[in-house]
Design brief:
Layout (H helix, E strand, L loop, with lengths): L1 H18 L19 H25 L5 H75 L6 H149 L12 H56 L6 H6 L41 H13 L2 H4 L5 H8 L20 H6 L11
Helix pairs in contact: 1-3, 2-3, 4-5, 5-7
């Protein structure tokens, strides 16, 4: 051990000597500055830089008068090169000064440890020499027991007893130290076990903390999702409120229009009832004229002698034609009025059914059923079943005749078995008759209905294949024109 320490100390001393060896001589004109670490090294570097600058200026001032342009440039390049070399040397000096300071510190420590080891070595050598001398003395004493007197034996006995007691005390002390070290070792084992348990507890705590952090993160995510869902619910609620307000307004408008349609239907019914007596009178008059015509057909026909005798039959035929035309016009207008009333009743039924369907949908939406727009937007409930299109719903029964107008036969005002000249005269009389002068004889109601379009000119009602969700205002806008009735 001592030999190894001595070898290590020698190696460190050699390294320190190599580190402390003098550096290469500085360039021309430089003074050797003392090397040191820290602030002294910085001062030395500044001194070296000042000396280098001063030497450069002196050399430049010395050579300036005798130098040309090329030599001056060459000298400046040489000075720059030397300045770079000086900087590099100064950096090397600074690094070596730091290394020398570190080696000096290590050398001081090694010298202290070397002195301590030398002292221990000297003490061990002295103890070994004493032991060797004591062993030699004991060996000599054991062999020369004949020349030892009793006093020397007693003294040796006392020395042996003292040595025995000393050794006994040392043994007891060592036993106590052993017990103490055993107790300390047991305590260390316990502490090590407790440390292991504490590490395990810390690991479990870290796992628990990670799990709690995950739960907190999931809770935050769930809260954020709940806030987003509540925001969507609030937005859906606001939309539903706006839809409810709009539907209430539409329902109010539809109710007003329905009331107006009902009033128009009542007026049409009243007009029909008022026209029925006149129609009956016209029918009776028509039957009377037909009876007269049949009676005239039964009489033998007399050929006219003069034109004066033809004026009365022509006037009578003209009156018959005019009455027949008025009768047919009345029938057409009555059929058109009846068809219009039936169409109005069908439109009213469609509007009532559509309004009832919308009210049912709104009730389902308010109750949170399948028709809720919020549920459809959030995708939490299945979509509502498709509504039955308007084209597939049953319509009110049509007229028993099966057509949109009456299939009343057109009456021929002229007899079929009349001769050709008489038919020509009757046609000429009808064409030349002043029917416009006789028109005021009609009732004012028939005059007003005469200005209305016939059943062929009435615009057909709009298609019923409209979506049920369209507002009633659109359907009412496309309804056929309503015949205005005269005030009674």
């Amino acid at each position: 051990m001592a030999a190894a320490a001595e070898e290590g100390a020698a190696a460190r001393a050699e390294a320190s000597e190599r580190a402390a060896a003098p550096l290469a001589p500085p360039p021309m004109g430089f003074d050797r500055a003392p090397l040191s670490s820290g602030a002294d090294g910085g001062v030395a570097r500044e001194a070296l830089l000042a000396q280098a600058e001063r030497a450069a200026r002196e050399s430049l001032a010395y050579t300036q008068p005798s130098l040309g342009g090329g030599e001056e440039e060459k000298l400046s390049r040489e000075l720059a090169h030397k300045q770079a070399l000086v900087d590099r040397l100064l950096d090397d000096v600074e690094r070596r000064s730091v290394a020398v300071a570190r080696c000096n510190e290590e050398l001081t420590n090694l010298r202290g440890s070397n002195n301590h080891l030398h002292r221990e070595l000297a003490a061990l050598r002295a103890h070994l020499a004493e032991r060797d001398s004591a062993v030699a003395q004991l060996a000599a004493d054991t062999t020369n027991t004949d020349n030892i007197d009793s006093n020397e034996l007693r003294r040796r006995h006392r020395l042996l007893g003292a040595a025995y007691r000393t050794d006994r005390r040392k043994m007891e002390q060592m036993l106590e130290q052993q017990q103490t070290m055993g107790a300390a070792l047991a305590a260390h084992e316990q502490l090590h076990q407790a440390h292991v348990e504490l590490k395990e507890a810390h690991r479990q705590q870290a796992v628990q903390m990670q799990r709690l952090q995950d739960e907190v993160r999931r809770a935050e995510e769930a809260r954020r999702v709940a806030e987003e869902r509540s925001g969507r619910y609030r937005a859906a609620t606001k939309k539903q409120e706006a839809i409810i307000v709009r539907f209430e307004a539409l329902l109010g408008q539809a109710a007003k229009k329905l009331e107006s349609k009902k009033l128009e239907g009542v007026k049409l019914e009243e007009a029909k009832r008022q026209l029925e007596p006149e129609m009956e009178a016209l029918k009776s008059k028509l039957q009377q004229m037909e009876a007269e015509l049949q009676s005239e057909r039964g009489k033998p026909r007399v050929e006219p002698q003069h034109e004066a005798h033809d004026e009365a039959p022509s006037a009578e035929a003209e009156e018959q034609v005019r009455l027949l035309v008025r009768t047919e016009k009345s029938e057409r207008r009555a059929a058109a009025l009846e068809e219009e009333m039936m169409e109005m009743s069908r439109l009213h039924a469609r509007e009532v059914a559509s309004l009832k369907l919308k009210i049912a949908e709104k009730d389902a939406q308010l109750m949170g059923g399948f028709g809720s727009n919020a549920n459809l937007e959030l995708g939490e409930l299945p979509t509502a079943p498709a509504a039955v299109p308007a084209a597939e719903r049953a319509l009110p029964p049509r007229h028993p005749s099966g057509g949109s107008r009456r299939n009343s036969p057109r009456l021929n005002p002229l007899p079929a078995n009349s001769s050709q000249p008489a038919a020509k005269q009757d046609a000429r009389a009808v064409a030349q008759s002043p029917t416009s002068a006789r028109e005021p004889e009609d009732s004012p109601q028939l005059q007003q209905f005469a200005t209305q379009p016939s059943s062929e000119d009435i615009v057909p009602p709009p298609s019923t294949n409209e979506p049920t969700g369209s507002p009633p205002a659109q359907s009412s806008a496309a309804s056929p024109p309503v015949v205005s009735l005269p005030s009674q």
